Structures are given as structure tokens and as C-alpha cells.
């Protein structure tokens, strides 16, 4: 039989918790446009294969073009802020995500469509609300089991997410990124065909506040 290789099988939609990105040894720098709201923010929408491997940097002839997202920049600044140092306006982060991941799904969307799809998935997931409904709020010094966190999201979204943790300066594990699986049309959440290999959480996980965080350049 002749089989035709597919571009990819499904997507990981990955959001980060800014409180945990910042509350690490490296710290963070707020974007030039100001401190983001206390909410999850988008990391990326990543095409993946069901065997766990993934394509990357698929089309150097289609580099990121600012002008294609110019009338959605304020929404991207809110929903997809950059927290890396030094402070940026977001364009570098969006460029990286489009070129590394977005260009591997050009059969589904163009550059503008890539960012629109991610914004729409973030609204659908409404992770902060899912956790809030289960009484899980961003509070320093309060711990949850990984099961409580996953159950809250599963109940609200319908499918089990993958949770990645990082470690704060006191050695506590904290909720860092949430991976959700999305069908090949980039519109619906699905049951994950395979979970990513992330850093383990342990069973005592903090969901730290972001409101108490300062930018590294203010310290
Ligand atoms: P890390 O090594 O920090 O987990 O991942 C570094 C980068 O590699 C991610 O930001 C992402 O661009 C890419 N990456 C890591 N794991 C996966 C994966 O399972 N699927 C895809 N598509 N990309 C990944
Ligand atoms: P990935 O890990 O997706 O391949 O790469 C993420 C890249 O974007 C890294 O070079 C990282 O420094 C940069 N970056 C800029 N802002 C952010 C941010 O807020 N979160 C993450 N995870 N990476 C960011
Ligand atoms: P179990 O398969 O019993 O749920 O979990 C086995 C181990 O994997 C436990 O140590 C648990 O903390 C960890 N674990 C379970 N689910 C996740 C997850 O979504 N992300 C990460 N990073 N670790 C997990």
C-alpha cells in the first residue's frame, strides 16, 4: 500500500501560568506594554504526530510578517504576552512560534489564522475559570494535588490535560504549563493521542499568585 505522509496529526495547545514562569530562578521581565493580567497566557499551538515526535520550522519561505497581525496586536499583547527578559513587545515571541510551529500546519491556516485559532482556543478553554469553579485560586503557600488540578480542568473542558510543573526558589513544585490536545482543524479539544514528556509535578503543587510578582528590572 502506498501511504501518504501527513503534515501532522493533532496540535498541542499550550498555555503558561505567568506566576510560575516569573517565580523561578530566572525570573521574568514584563512586556514593554505593561504587566499582563493575572490569567493564563498562550505559549503556542504546536503540530504534533501521534508517536510523540513533531515537525518544526517547516517553511522558511513564509517568515513572520508583522503587518498580517497589525490589527490584532493589542489582543495578542493581552492574551499572548512575552515574559522573557529583556522586556519585549511580543513580536519576537510570536515570530518564533509562527516560524517554528505555525509553518508546519500551513494546510490549516495562514499566519493570521494561526493566531486567531490560538486566541479562540484560549477563550474556549477558560482555564482560570475551570480552576476557580473547583476552588483552586492563585494563592501563594497553598497546595493542591495534581489530581485536583487535572480533575478541575477535565470537568470543565471535557478532556484530561497534561500539567507541567516547574520549581520556585524554595523548591516547591508549581503549575507551570497546561497542554491540551486539539484536532487537526485547530478548532476542537480532543482526548490526547499521546501525552508530552514534561517535568514531573509530584503530588504537592502550588498555584502561585501573579499579582504579587515583580518584573526583574524592578528588583
Ligand atoms: P522544552 O524542552 O522546554 O519542554 O521545550 C522546548 C520547546 O520545544 C517548546 O517550547 C516547543 O517549541 C518544543 N516542544 C517541546 N515539546 C514538544 C512537543 O511535545 N511537541 C511539540 N510540537 N513541540 C514541543
Ligand atoms: P519554545 O520553547 O516555544 O521553542 O520557545 C520559546 C521561545 O520564546 C524561547 O526562545 C523563549 O525565550 C521565547 N519567549 C519569549 N517570551 C516567552 C514567554 O513568555 N514564555 C516562553 N515560554 N517563552 C518565551
Ligand atoms: P499517575 O499516573 O498516578 O496519575 O501519576 C504518576 C506520577 O505522574 C505522579 O507522580 C504524578 O504526580 C505525575 N503526574 C500525573 N499527571 C501528571 C501531569 O499531567 N503532568 C505531570 N508533569 N506529572 C503528572
Protein described:
The mean pLDDT is 96. By secondary structure, the chain is α+β, with helices and mostly antiparallel strands. Strands 1, 2, 3, 4, 5, 6 and 7 form a seven-stranded mixed sheet that branches. It has a single domain (10-218), classed as Ribonuclease T2-like (Ribonuclease Rh, Chain A), CATH 3.90.730.10. Helix content is 26%, strand content 17%. The longest helix has 15 residues, at 111-125. The protein has six helices and seven strands, in the order βαβααααβαββββ. Strand 5 (173-182) and strand 6 form a beta hairpin. The protein has helices spanning 18-22, 73-79, 91-100, 111-125, 127-133, 146-157, and strands at residues 10-16, 41-48, 143-144, 162-167, 173-182, 189-190, 205-206. The structure holds guanosine-5'-monophosphate (5GP) (3 copies). One guanosine-5'-monophosphate is lined by residues 12, 46, 48, 54, 100, 196.
Key phrases:
219 residues; alpha+beta; Ribonuclease Rh, Chain A; 7-stranded mixed beta sheet; 6 helices; globular; binds guanosine-5'-monophosphate
Task: Write the SSE topology.
Layout lengths: L9 E7 L1 H5 L18 E8 L24 H7 L11 H10 L10 H15 L1 H7 L9 E2 L1 H12 L4 E6 L5 E10 L6 E2 L14 E2 L13
Parallel strand pairs: 5-7
Antiparallel strand pairs: 1-2, 1-5, 3-7, 4-5, 5-6
Helix pairs in contact: 5-6
The chain binds guanosine-5'-monophosphate (3 copies).
One guanosine-5'-monophosphate binds next to strand 2 and helix 3.
Amino acid at each position: 500500500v502506498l501511504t501518504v505522509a501527513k503534515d501532522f496529526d493533532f496540535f498541542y495547545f499550550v498555555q503558561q501560568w505567568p506566576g510560575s514562569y516569573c517565580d523561578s530562578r530566572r525570573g521574568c521581565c514584563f512586556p514593554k506594554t505593561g504587566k499582563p493580567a493575572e490569567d493564563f497566557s498562550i505559549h503556542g499551538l504546536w503540530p504534533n504526530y501521534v508517536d510523540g515526535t513533531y515537525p518544526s520550522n517547516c517553511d522558511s519561505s513564509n517568515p513572520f510578517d508583522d503587518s498580517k497581525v497589525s490589527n490584532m496586536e493589542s489582543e495578542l499583547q493581552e492574551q499572548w504576552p512575552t515574559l522573557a527578559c529583556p522586556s519585549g513587545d511580543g513580536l519576537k515571541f510570536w515570530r518564533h512560534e509562527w516560524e517554528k510551529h505555525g509553518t508546519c500546519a500551513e494546510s490549516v491556516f495562514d499566519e493570521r489564522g494561526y493566531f486567531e485559532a490560538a486566541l479562540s482556543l484560549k477563550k474556549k478553554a477558560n482555564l482560570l475559570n475551570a480552576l476557580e469553579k473547583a476552588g483552586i485560586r492563585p494563592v501563594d503557600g497553598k497546595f493542591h494535588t495534581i489530581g485536583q488540578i487535572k480533575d478541575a480542568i477535565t470537568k470543565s473542558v471535557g478532556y484530561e490535560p497534561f500539567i507541567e510543573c516547574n520549581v520556585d526558589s524554595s523548591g516547591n513544585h508549581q503549575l507551570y504549563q497546561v497542554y491540551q490536545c486539539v484536532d487537526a482543524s485547530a478548532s476542537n479539544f480532543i482526548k490526547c493521542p499521546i501525552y508530552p514528556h514534561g517535568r514531573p509535578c509530584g503530588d504537592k503543587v502550588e498555584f502561585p499568585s501573579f499579582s504579587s510578582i515583580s518584573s526583574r528590572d524592578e528588583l
